[in-house]
Request: fold
Amino acid sequence: MPANLTPQYKEAEQRYRQAKSLPAKVAALQEMMAVIPKHKGTDHLRADLRARMSRLMEEVEKPQATSGGPQPFSIRKEGAGQVLIIGLPNSGKSELLNALTGAPAKVGDYPFTTQVPMVGMLPFENVLFQLVDTPALNDKDIQTRLFGLLRNTDLLLVALDLSGDPVREMKEINDLLDQWGYSLLETGQAIDEEGARIQKPAILIANKTDLEGAQQRYTELQHRYGQRFLILKVSCMDGTGLETLSEEVFKSLNKVRVYTKSPTGQPDYDTPIVMARGSTTADAAERLHREWREKLKYALLWGSAKFDGQRVGRDYVLSDGDVIELHG
Ligand SMILES: Nc1nc2c(ncn2[C@@H]2O[C@H](COP(=O)(O)OP(=O)(O)OP(=O)(O)O)[C@@H](O)[C@H]2O)c(=O)[nH]1
Ligand SMILES: [Mg+2]
Reply:
């Protein structure tokens, strides 16, 4: 299988082999991923590079036993899903976190204000998402750790600046993601587990719509990327578009909320079980209590059932808002 590797690739590979430090290895591998010819013949090799990068990232993310200090880029997931705000400098990532969650992220009218990720909780009806503001994607000093953080996240909000050139920004972001082995999942596209890239669901956030000329740039952006991605027009300044954002986040995360009730009681609508779309009554039972998975014989269902209180089996696929009564 001829891979037709270029001298540039071979040079980077040599540097990779000789690299002594972790950052040097990542940098060389990053270059190999960037310059490798992209065709069928290199599919295997690219998947292998991506796996190597994953392993390196794991090492990067691992808390250093000696340092003992805080690990700001290693964030424990909380809530119904983790959502990362990414983008270039000054696009309003931190302002967006503040506007949506009230978290006090530092905002500046100069680039690279944010140096470490910052977390807030984003409410939608009766659930909370973990929203994370991140440093600019093109900040070389934090790239290794930032792209490590991207690996396990559930959804990306790509912040674009309508006062600049959002189409160019989007291209630059795509290139950076590509270099680090990522790609954005497009509308209607299913995740390809075998693919050479880590695909991440994403919503484009066209920010600063309050500014002069923003509408025209939004139209251009929509024209260029609207078929492939959901684009939301927002302003952190006057609040435009922010009310609907959390609902779109919920939809993009592909989750359902299910409520349980006892035979005599009422469902508790304040504490949903949040599960991936496609989950079954047996999955819900397990979330309630581990033994319930084995114990469950059937459930009574209100919501997506044909009639209230319909009896359904263990493999019944639940819909958002369903109420179930478990029977062992
Ligand atoms: N007019 C207007 N200005 C905004 C809006 N959102 C953010 N800004 C301004 O844009 C500048 C950059 O905002 P930040 O939130 O710091 O941008 P950032 O993407 O976090 O920047 P880095 O941390 O440097 O990557 C600040 O001066 C904000 O006040 C908006 O919706 N409208
Ligand atoms: Mg910031």
User: Anything to note?
Assistant: Residues 93-94, 113-114, 133 surround magnesium ion (ligand 2) (CB under 6 Å). The chain has ten helices and twelve strands. Residues 82-253 form a domain with the Rossmann fold fold (CATH 3.40.50.300).
